[in-house]
Amino acid sequence: MLPSPRPGHLASFLRPWSMIWMSICPLTLFFLTQTDIIHKPSGFITFEDTTVVPSLVHAASGLVLELGPGPGNQIHRFGTAGVTFIYGVEPNSLFKEGIDAKLRKHGLSVNYKLILCGVEDSDVLRDEGISEGSLDAVLCIQVLCAVKDPKSVMKEVWKLLKPGGRFIFWEHGESRDRLTGTVQALTNPAWNTFVGCHLTRRVKADILHSGEWENPGDIEEPEEPASLLPRI
């Protein structure tokens, strides 16, 4: 028997459906007009500014690989101090134009290179000088929820990091709260269809099972029992 919803649960459970609705609306407009989807400014970058994300990006140093930069939300947060070079590995070529524009805007065109492939495409990465044990840091901000096989991705990340290298991440995944986990499972099919990622990934397990990490106890999982997007 599931516990009764606590105060705040209902609002948290309904909030993701507003994001699903916002995803459905431009899709409907697209099919009706047969024109490009209109992209409105998102408040997600502003939201990330209230979290640990900016400090995580600043923690990346040396030779860095940004996993799945997408529209380039983190580009403005990179500093050149302590960073030798940044590779962005992104399989979706539709993001290239926007990322290139942001690199020019923030003066990172010579410090950041976008590679249109997946992290599993070792031949492509090798041609760019990225081989096993070559990276100082891999930055992963909300990527493992959307990739096809997070376990495979993490195994590749482990191989690419040099001894002492750092995997720096901010993800969401399966809730440890029983009721919330049930609602996640019920919401996930619509969420995955219209938003494009998964609510029920066991992110911590996928990360830890990829290799023998030095400090797994440092992984932070704030208590968010009512959130369908609990962060790790």
UniProtKB/TrEMBL annotation:
Quote the biased-composition stretches of kind Acidic residues, using this chain's numbering.
215-224
> Which CDD domains does its entry note?
AdoMet_MTases (cd02440)
Q: Where is the Methyltransferase type domain?
A: 65-169
Q: At the top level of its lineage, which domain of life is listed?
A: Eukaryota
In residue numbers, the region (Disordered) covers 213-232
GO molecular-function terms, A-Z: methyltransferase activity; S-adenosylmethionine-dependent methyltransferase activity
What name does the UniProt record give this protein? Answer: Methyltransferase type 11 domain-containing protein
Q: Which organism is it from?
A: Emericella nidulans (strain FGSC A4 / ATCC 38163 / CBS 112.46 / NRRL 194 / M139) (Aspergillus nidulans)
